[in-house]
Design a protein that fits this description.
Layout: H1 2-20, E1 23-24, E2 31-37, E3 43-51, E4 54-57, E5 63-64, E6 82-84, E7 86-87, E8 89-91, E9 99-103, E10 109-111, E11 127-132, E12 139-142, E13 147-151, E14 161-166, E15 173-181, E16 189-190
Antiparallel strand pairs: 1-11, 2-3, 2-15, 3-4, 4-14, 5-16, 6-8, 7-11, 8-9, 9-10, 11-12, 12-15, 13-14, 13-15
This protein binds 2-acetamido-2-deoxy-beta-D-glucopyranose (NAG) (4 copies).
């Protein structure tokens, strides 16, 4: 009887330890996001950019800086920088009000203009950024019961994909979202 109890206790402790060590708090500060995918087509952290309200692999960021009011040399707008990841995510920008990242009603990852009212069906809560226990201990961004997907907008295989966060349907490529520490803002505003 004592032996059985000891085994059960051991099993319970081992189980708790597995859960506790599944992930670790992420490094603080801003980050860039990249596509990690293995099998083919392979991607090893290729940058995800904000472009015309949505997020893309294979497109440059669309950024704006009002040259008359701001020292735009500090805002080249050449990369897409995020903050947060503990429930909510935003774009790091110079413009007041920031820019909320959300999932739209179609499952597309999207971003709002500063101080904008979000469209109906927008989901802003539920993002989870953490250091994974996977090999190399990548810092990943996840969302429970949804998968990251690369979807070709016109069915062509030209390396341009829009980022979705939904349930896998088979028409898109699954991937892991990895994040990488960034030094600060790149854009005054993404448009
Ligand atoms: C995330 O936010 C919650 C609520 O504000 C807080 O309790 C928790 O410690 C935060 N987690 C991390 C990893 O910062
Ligand atoms: C958004 O609102 C904040 C706070 O009211 C304000 O400081 C900021 O200038 C606004 N941004 C824009 C682009 O209007
Ligand atoms: C598909 O869309 C991409 C990106 O918008 C574009 O570069 C490409 O030319 C399009 N391909 C076709 C076959 O329309
Ligand atoms: C995806 O499917 C799971 C399991 O059926 C469900 O709980 C979840 O709400 C679905 N998510 C979306 C975005 O449809």
């Amino acid at each position: 009887m004592r032996t059985i109890l000891a085994i059960l206790t051991c099993a319970a402790v081992a189980h708790a330890a597995t859960i506790a060590s599944r992930s670790y708090p992420p490094p603080p500060g801003p980050w860039t996001a990249g596509v990690w995918r293995y099998p083919a087509p392979y991607y090893y952290g290729d940058g995800i950019n904000a472009n015309n309200g949505f997020f893309w692999l294979g497109k440059e960021p669309t950024a704006y800086c009002p040259t008359s009011d701001v020292d735009c040399s500090a805002y080249p707008g050449t990369s897409t920088i995020f903050v947060g990841g503990n429930d909510t995510v935003s774009l790091l920008v110079g413009v007041g009000g920031g820019q909320q990242v959300y999932i739209d009603a179609n499952g597309a990852l999207a971003y709002a203009q500063p101080n904008a009212t979000l469209p109906e069906g927008a989901v802003i809560n539920g993002f989870e950024r953490a250091i994974s226990e996977a090999f190399g201990a990548p810092t990943v961004l996840a969302f429970p019961s949804r998968n990251w997907q690369l979807c070709s907008v016109n069915g062509s295989d030209d390396g341009v994909y829009q980022i979705f966060l939904g349930n896998y349907t088979g028409d898109c490529l699954l991937f892991e979202m990895r994040t990488y520490t960034a030094s600060g803002a790149s854009a005054w505003e993404y448009v």
